[in-house]
Specification:
The structure holds 2 protein chains of 2 kinds. Chain A is about 35% helix and about 25% strand. Chain A contains 4 helices and 7 strands. The mean pLDDT of chain A is about 80. In chain B, helix 3 packs antiparallel against helix 8 and helix 4 packs antiparallel against helix 5. Chain B has 2 domains: about 40 residues; about 190 residues, no CATH class. By secondary structure, chain B is an alpha+beta fold. In chain B, a hairpin with a 2-residue loop joins strand 2 and strand 3. The chains are: A alpha/beta, B alpha+beta. Chains A and B meet through helix 1, strand 1, strand 5, helix 4 and strand 6 of A and helix 2, strand 1 and strand 8 of B.
């Protein structure tokens, strides 16, 4: 009796493998493009020995985002009733201002300003300065994810 | 066995033995997939974010003189418009020192001088427009200055520099910084929405050279600036007004 050799046809397997390879390459190129492009998350870390600790908030023109929890507070609520006499509001931002002011020289507010908030940032700055807390600020690209980490 | 049958068997066997073996290719592909997966994991981890050690400067009061750096269209330019306007108006300050009668007779010459006057600081150019009116009542003649406008714009061929341009030691930005005094002056960057990179590059260089810096968001400034000299009666006092004008215009 004649023996017949059992053989596998590997072409479908190769086809699947090639497709998988192409998909992985596509994903990898996308990730690398993101890592060198504008979408990479920029994580700010306090440099050196700072006597005051910043609390970072983001201003985008309509909302204040408090880091690191990323609590979003609409501008009209966040800035309501702020005045030089210490008037504040019950929003998360209002509470933050109270905490920072009470901390004296230990903390200050640091604004990351998006281009969408450039046109009215000076108004926000005036509110916060009038309230009596120290501030700093820095521009950040509109679509760049931003993080903040303490050492 | 006949010879022809032997040959047929040999041909069939030889044909089977020369079939393509894909095992090696499969190995190579499988290894490649493994490497790509490894690279992908690495890329995903690195793309999560980059850590930047960063100083978080606070606003500080300063008694230093403010020097404006205009950042727009992703370019930088140090502008001393206040000084250019102030120097351009020197004849007016001298005019103001005169007595009332001498001022009256000097008005036509002053108007002519301002219409022809031109000066620059190597970056900005100032020219003027001036008008007067005169009339008579009976035998008395009167004249007065109606308007003096200073027009300020960059000299032809002068424009802002891109971030890569200011790395050059001979860039206009660095040369302009070279004539400033870091002990008595600080740089205020007026930053448009499209010029964050230019601002950062300029600030890094300024800080390397020992300058204090600050920035403020600022909408696009369109040249030329037109400064209308404010009048107080028949004399002109523009000392503080130039600063007010520039503050309103630039900020």
């Amino acid at each position: 009796m004649r023996k017949t050799l059992a053989s596998f046809d590997l072409f479908p397997f190769l086809g699947i493998l090639m497709c998988l390879l192409a998909c992985l390459l596509l994903i990898m190129i996308t990730m690398v493009a993101m890592s060198v492009g504008p979408c990479i998350t920029e994580i700010w870390v306090v440099e050196g020995n700072s006597t005051k600790m910043p609390t970072m908030v983001e201003w985008n023109g309509t909302e204040i985002v408090i880091y690191p929890e990323k609590t979003i507070v609409p501008a009209n609520i966040a800035l309501e009733n702020l005045d030089e006499e210490g008037g504040t509001n019950d929003s998360a931002f209002g509470e933050l201002l109270v905490e920072v002011k009470e901390s004296g020289d230990e903390r200050y507010i640091y604004f990351a300003v998006r281009p969408s908030g450039f046109h009215n940032f000076t108004d926000v700055l005036a509110y916060v300065k009038n309230y009596g807390v120290s501030v700093g600020y820095e521009p950040v690209e509109q679509n760049r994810p931003l993080g903040y980490a303490e050492e | 066995m006949p010879r022809s049958d032997t040959l047929n068997v040999y041909r069939k066997r030889k044909y089977r033995q020369t079939g393509i073996n894909l095992d090696s290719l499969t190995d190579i592909l499988a290894n490649t997939v493994g490497i790509v997966i490894f690279l992908m994991i690495f890329a995903v981890i690195s793309a999560r974010g980059s850590f930047y050690a960063k100083s978080f400067p606070m606003l500080q009061d300063t008694s230093k003189e403010r020097v404006v750096v205009l950042c727009q269209a992703n370019t930088l330019m140090i502008i001393r418009a206040d000084i250019v306007i102030d120097q351009f108006l020197q004849p007016l300050y001298e005019f103001n020192q005169r007595s009332s009668g001498r001022r009256y007779s000097a008005i036509p010459d002053l108007i002519d001088e301002f219409n022809e006057r031109r000066m620059d600081d190597g970056v900005l150019e100032a020219t003027g427009e001036a008008e007067m009116s005169s009339w008579s009542i009976g035998w008395s003649y009167y004249r007065k200055i109606d308007r003096i406008t200073v027009i300020v714009q960059p000299l032809p061929g002068i424009s802002g520099e891109y971030p890569e341009d200011i790395q050059n030691e001979n860039s206009l930005f660095r040369r302009s910084l070279g004539v400033l005094d870091s002990n008595s002056q600080f740089l205020m960057f007026f930053v448009d929405t499209d010029s964050i990179d230019a601002f950062r590059a300029g600030r890094d260089i300024a800080q390397e050279l020992g300058f204090d810096t600050n920035w403020i968001p600022n909408p696009r400034l369109f040249w030329p600036l037109r400064y209308n000299v404010p009048f107080d009666g028949d004399s002109v006092d523009s000392g503080q007004s130039i600063t007010d004008f520039l503050f309103r215009t630039i900020q």
